[in-house]
Write a structure and sequence with these properties.
Length: about 80
C-alpha cells in the first residue's frame, strides 16, 4: 500500500517536473526571483568554502615543503 502511494507521488512529481514552472502571476514571479536569489547565495557560499579549503590545503603543502627544505638544509650543515 505504501509503496503504491510512493510510486504515485513520484509519478506526480515527475509529471510536474516535465511540465516545467510557469510564471503567470506577480506572486509566482516574486517566488521565482526569491528562489533564484537563494540559489545564487547558496552557490556563492559553496564557492567561498571551496576556495577556503583549497587555500588551507595549499598552505599546508607549502608548510610541508618548507619543513622538508629546512630539514635538508640542517642535514647538509652537519
Amino acid at each position: 500500500m505504501i509503496n503504491e502511494l510512493l510510486k504515485e507521488e513520484l509519478k506526480t512529481v515527475n509529471d510536474r517536473e516535465q511540465e516545467g514552472f510557469q510564471i503567470n502571476s506577480l506572486q509566482s514571479a516574486d517566488w521565482a526571483m526569491r528562489k533564484l536569489q537563494a540559489i545564487e547565495k547558496h552557490d556563492q557560499e559553496v564557492q567561498k568554502r571551496h576556495k577556503q579549503t583549497l587555500i588551507k590545503q595549499l598552505l599546508g603543502e607549502i608548510g610541508n615543503l618548507l619543513k622538508m627544505n629546512l630539514v635538508e638544509n640542517i642535514s647538509m650543515d652537519y
